[in-house]
Amino acid sequence: MTEYPQTKSLPTSSAQNKPSVSQEQxxxxxxxxxxxxxxxxxxxxxxLHVADISYLAEYFVLVTGFSRVQxxxxxxxxxxxAAEECARExxxxxxxxxxxxxxxxxxxxxxxxxxxxxxDYYNLEAFWSHAERIPFVPGAIAP
Length: 143
Prior knowledge:
disordered N terminus
């Protein structure tokens, strides 16, 4: 397992998972990721602000892809867009081989890209229902 440097600006319990960024930067990254997923026709895009209820991340972005190829294409578009617009690379990425549930961990933002069956089965929206849901309008242009 890769060890990441701890920062003074974050609590010790979460410093290994979250890079030292502001809440505004985290939100910008989450919205950028959502727009990249929308550009690749990702469905039912949901942004959850989980910072107040979890030490795992500031935001979760949930996306549905309708084929394994599309799930991978969405993940690649997110990775490229986050690098270009936010100068960020995922710390970890899992699920590329199966293509039915792909996770990208940016530290402060965790992206879940599911096939419909997996999204229904794991139902992360219900599990994290007490998180603040951030409105996302598909096709919206960045401010």
